[in-house]
Amino acid sequence: METHIAILPSPGMGHLIPLTELAHQLLLHRRLFITFIIPTATGSPIKPQNDILNAMPENISSIFLPPVSLNDIPEDSALETRISLTLTRSLPALRQTLTELTRDSVRKKPSALVVDVFGPLSFEIAKEFHIPAYLFCTVSAMTLVSFFQIPILDQKYACEYKDLPEPVRLPGCVPVRGSDMIEPVQDKTNEAYLQMVEMTKMYSLAEGILVNSFLELEPGPFKAMEEGDWCKPEIYSVGPLIRAGSENRTGEGFECLKWLDKQDVGSVLFVSFGSGGTLSQMQLNELAFGLEQSGQRFLWVIKSPHQKSNASYFNAKSHLDPFGFLPDGFLARIKDRGLVVSCWAPQVEILSHGSTGGFLTHCGWNSILESLVCGVPMIAWPLFAEQKMNSVLLTDGLGVAHRVKVDGNGVVGRDEISKFVKSLIEGEDGRKMRSKMSELKGLGAMALSQDGSSTRSLLNVAQKWCE
Ligand code: UDP
């Protein structure tokens, strides 16, 4: 009988997408049944979620847990608090689902429960069923090191991270300014901080941790985890796992690929802030003027403005029609060299298109890996979660991105934007970063090749599950 694996993605496309890709990779190497058990706080699944789940092969099925309510918590609760609560409140339904799966004569009891970075909250339940719990780290190895270090740093520093006079030296990682550490630790008075300290302590309870990165990209953090006594679980580097582009290039959202077909090779800057990133109205204006001023070609995925930088995280939607928020006459002025797309675009297909020469990104880890696999250099514009730390890796660590500077008003100005866009697409800096990116692309492909480091790691862990 085939081995059965259960996967529990926490809310957010940035968690679901790499976990589904992990499932695809596992099926390439082993005969398995995989069940996605999906907690939700939004009611019915959102379209990009449905598109991905509907395209799964028949050995992968999904069960949506009953939606939980978050109506009793303040509107301005931290994103991490909302995600953690969704998971915590879904635990009874997870227990019920595992009971049913365990009784199912076809699928039988899962041999492993695979969860993502918020998943340790479910370890207790896995233990009740004697199912080994594995963590799939949807962020960089450097961020994983920071997770392990958070409880240790909590004991070491009493002040806020932003007030530290020296950069934080995480084992094996490039130094990080305190203010660039992950967002939920930035305010120690917020409940999200305590939740993070408690959750990261649970990382040591995982049977193993699969990381969506590869040894050759982040040798320092992987070595530090192998050698440090603070890292108990076995670490498996299995990346870069990114969603494969769609063969079917028709339908909503794919029109922009036809537009890209008509542009010169490497001439277009792709601008996107991920599934949930949002800008303020003032920032949206500056970005529009900066792109216009740069004189370069661009493809911009836009959402309506919001004061919160992650306002679309749970639904990947634009709250209002975004086009009405652009400066007067903007679309008419840029129509010969720019295209603006509302809300969601086929990112992997865009990054792998020959006309795309640069990516202005919010530095979500999936976006970074997708850019890397396609060899596209970046402008780093981090917004929330661990994105600032990712941008430090890209700039100081790997030298494949420029990071924008936010001024005293919390805004990146049009002159700065225009300068970076020009430099990335047609400047000497852009050429150097492109060449470095192409080296990393080669290393990434090698890690996933038949005898590559990530393939070997994935086979090792899959072997454990199938024993
Ligand atoms: N994505 C996409 N089209 C969009 C926005 C996002 O396909 O218009 C995909 C993107 O390719 C990536 C994921 O959504 O796989 C976003 O994950 P990431 O970690 O980059 O950022 P998050 O959205 O979690 O902040």
Automatic annotation (TrEMBL):
Name assigned to this protein: Glycosyltransferase
GO molecular function: UDP-glycosyltransferase activity
Enzyme category, top tier: transferase
The keyword Membrane is assigned to this record: no
Gene3D superfamilies from the UniProt entry: Glycogen Phosphorylase B
Family annotation (PROSITE patterns): UDPGT
Family: Belongs to the UDP-glycosyltransferase family.
UniProt keyword Transport present: no
Alphabetic keyword roster: Glycosyltransferase, Transferase
Organism the protein comes from: Deinandra increscens subsp. villosa
EC number: 2.4.1.-
Pfam families in alphabetical order: UDPGT
